[in-house]
Description:
Helix content is about 20%, strand content about 30%. The protein has helices spanning about 15-25, 60-70, 155-165, 185-190, 285-305, and strands at about 5-15, 30-40, 75-80, 80-90, 90-95, 100-110, 115, 130-135, 145-150, 170-175, 195-200, 200-210, 210-220, 225-230, 230-235, 240, 270-275. Strands 1, 2, 3, 4, 5, 6 and 17 form a 7-stranded mixed beta sheet that branches. The protein has a 5-stranded parallel beta sheet with strand order 8-15-9-10-11. Helix 1 (about 15-25) packs parallel to helix 2 (about 60-70) and helix 1 packs parallel to helix 5. The radius of gyration is 22 Å and the shape is elongated. The structure holds flavin-adenine dinucleotide.
Amino acid sequence: MNNDKYDVIIIGAGAAGMAAAIFTCRKKMKTLLVSIDIGGQNLLTEKEENYPGYTESSGTKLMKFFETQARKFGAEFVFGKASKIEKTGSNFSVQLTNKESYDCRSVIIASGKVPRSLGIPGEDKFFGRGVITCSSLQPQEFKGKIVAVIGGGNSAVEAADAISEFSSKTYLIHRRDAFRADEVTVENVRKKGRVEFILNNVPVEIRGDKSVESLIIEDVKTAAKKEINVNFVLVEIGLMVDIRFANGLVKTNEQNEIVVNESCETSCKGIFAAGDITNVPYKQTVISAGLGATAGLSVYNYIMKLDGKTGAKFDW
Ligand SMILES: Cc1cc2nc3c(=O)[nH]c(=O)nc-3n(C[C@H](O)[C@H](O)[C@H](O)COP(=O)(O)OP(=O)(O)OC[C@H]3O[C@@H](n4cnc5c(N)ncnc54)[C@H](O)[C@@H]3O)c2cc1C
């Protein structure tokens, strides 16, 4: 194997990416995981009861086991966001938004789903410092602050409820005239009277100098705009697939998921995909882990073939 470059770069260190790394590393393939975080969506899961072998675990704890196991077999990790995969002959380079670049012989895309963004002015400017996604802060951290939660599903309503216990004021802003969240959940929050519901409104701009100071919302029926003072904007509008970094190299379906075959091969030779990012149904941790293992073993066979060797069948 070529020591100048990685045999495989795995984009994403969630269940799929880290499972893939365990399998590639155990085959002595030089493996690098490039990821924004370690754990992925599981970091948002308080209680995971359906991962076989663990009757109950927090997603964070489960992912720590994955990480420990991947590191034990030699996986390297680098924090960063992949911005581009470039194909040169049969090799690839994975570029990061911080301009770092890593070369490899194969790629596994395991980038799952990322929080959907609002796409409005001010969002990028204050991202991570006033604009946050998927409750990346504990409710206590909003003590005495004014918070606008955007969204209409269970996550948004539950987050608004939890935050309102500590905040000085909590708004729940939703674009429709009814929430998607379970009626019981909404009723429960309404009864407590701590959250102000603003329906039929969308956020259009986040304003501030050094920190978030206000949010402009627009009535979807009348187009009337209103400015409300806020310190935090919590965006809880679900998750989405974002594979702009793959730059049209791989075939996707209408949901923008990467189309794979049963060996997790994509339409591009040398690029594999695993987990929630693929068109495989049922987005669950155990399924992502299984697909990661499949992709890892497929990468091994791919590299063996490149080196003129026979791959393995992995069939006892
Ligand atoms: C609130 C919630 C509760 C859930 N509860 C359960 C449950 O109880 N049981 C269950 O089985 N499943 C549950 N799921 C689903 C489960 O979490 C997912 O199916 C699983 O995490 C998918 O794993 P993955 O590795 O495919 O993707 P992800 O977990 O999404 O991991 C993707 C990784 O890629 C990284 N990444 C993304 N883009 C880039 C980029 N451009 N560059 C570098 N890195 C990138 C991310 O940072 C992350 O580390 C839940 C999901 C949520 C959101």
